[in-house]
Specification:
Helix content is about 45%, strand content about 20%. The strands form 2 sheets. Strands 1-8-3-2-10-9-11 form a 7-stranded mixed barrel. It is flat and about 145 Å long. The chain is α+β, with helices and mostly antiparallel strands. It has a domain of about 90 residues. InterPro entries: MlaD_Phospholipid_Transporter. Keywords: Membrane, Transmembrane, Transmembrane helix. This is Mce/MlaD domain-containing protein.
């Protein structure tokens, strides 16, 4: 009796274990489906300048929907190829390329480049109008370049040379995303590091694109983070303050110069000389004054101009008549030339005709010299 009770108890325990195992398996499957653990994934990369707060396992979202996670972070030195003829030029879909990040430009050597920070020392930046006037490793910062690459950070003026670099230090972040989400990630999509809520973790946010699809293991371009944007604004503000200081310094120098009695006297003397010249001209003094106040001279000058105009008109009329006469001569000569060509062609055909037994023809065109030899033999006899 006790043995049967023990067997029943063992069977009950085994049944409970089996049911618990099945329940755990079902729960694991449901949990995995909820976490999309069974969905196929692909890897893409994004190069950031800084990834503060981003860690492996951080979420990857596209327009707020989670599509993957961060799986790797590493430091890399990279350079990006580009086409200087088509980069950021023209309209999208009409030959324009966009291989460089927004803060870069395409250098003449075909590499994406970043400008060096403006030093605010004019002696270190030579004036220029084109790249050929700058040294090796420098580019001429022009108005056209600033309009073309609006995202490039630059706090200096235009028409000066500045150095650039094509080797970039980046943090390459590898993203594992769902295969079915790749249809929304295109070559014009951008990745940015943002915060998931006010106190949330750092995530990678990807924008929906409309260009060509990104291939697996491809690279998606990035946009500056909030801290990078703040640093750029701070640098621009600092540059603006420097320009204001230079302007104030120039005003101070002008004020100091105006306070110098010698400078003020020189300016007054020049103004007085200019006023005197105007008075003399108005009074008819000097060559210019005489020309402006002498009516006979003005009439003579006007007559000369009219004579030149009439002469030019006569010359145009003569040239037109000459052109017309040459055209008529050409029209009349063309039929004669054509007729002469026809007659010369007929004579040539007659000379080359093998069935032509005319003696003069044979004498004129006797390639083997038979007719000439026959005439010589006849004369000898």
């Amino acid at each position: 009796m006790a043995r049967r009770s023990e067997q029943s108890r063992n069977q009950l325990v085994g049944l409970i274990v089996i049911i618990s195992g099945l329940a755990s398996l079902v729960g694991l499957v449901v949990f995995s489906q909820g976490k999309n653990l069974w969905k196929e994934r692909v890897s893409i990369t994004a190069d950031f300048r800084q990834v503060s707060g981003l860690r492996e396992g951080s979420a990857v979202q596209i327009e707020g929907m989670e599509i993957g996670t961060v799986v790797k972070r590493e430091f890399v030195w990279v350079d990006y190829p580009c086409d200087p003829q088509t980069e950021d030029r023209g309209r999208f879909g009409q030959g324009r390329t966009d291989d460089c990040d927004r803060t870069m430009f395409c250098a003449a050597e075909g590499r994406c480049a970043e400008l060096e920070s403006y030093s605010f020392n004019k002696d270190l930046h030579a004036p220029c109008e084109e790249d050929s006037q700058c040294g090796q490793g420098e580019v001429c910062v022009t108005q056209e370049m600033r309009r073309r690459y609006r995202g490039v950070l630059w706090t200096g003026g235009t028409g000066i040379c500045d150095g650039f670099t094509t080797d970039h230090s980046r943090i390459r972040v590898t993203l594992s995303v769902f295969q079915d989400s790749m249809m929304h990630i295109r070559d014009d999509s951008r990745a940015a590091i943002s915060q998931n809520g006010v106190l949330g973790d750092q995530i990678v946010q990807i924008s929906v694109g409309r260009g060509e699809p990104i291939q697996p293991d491809g690279r998606i371009q990035t946009t500056p983070s909030m801290s990078e944007t703040i640093d750029a604004v701070k640098e621009k503000v600092d540059g603006g303050f420097v320009k204001v200081e230079e302007a104030i310094g120039g005003i101070a120098e002008l004020a100091a110069a105006m306070g110098d009695g010698e400078t003020v006297k020189n300016i007054q003397d020049r103004l007085a000389a200019g006023d005197e010249n105007l008075r003399n001209t108005a009074a008819g003094k000097g060559m210019v004054g005489a020309m402006l106040n002498d009516e006979d001279l003005l009439r003579s000058f006007g007559s000369s101009l009219r004579g030149v105009q009439d002469g030019a008109a006569d010359l145009d009329h003569f040239l037109a008549k000459g052109q017309k006469a040459l055209t008529k001569f050409d029209d009349s000569m063309q039929p004669l030339v054509d007729d002469g060509r026809k007659k010369m062609a007929a004579i040539s055909n007659a000379l080359h005709d093998p069935y032509n037994v005319n003696v003069s023809t044979r004498l004129l065109y006797d390639s083997q010299g038979k007719m000439l030899k026959s005439v010589q033999d006849t004369s000898a006899t």
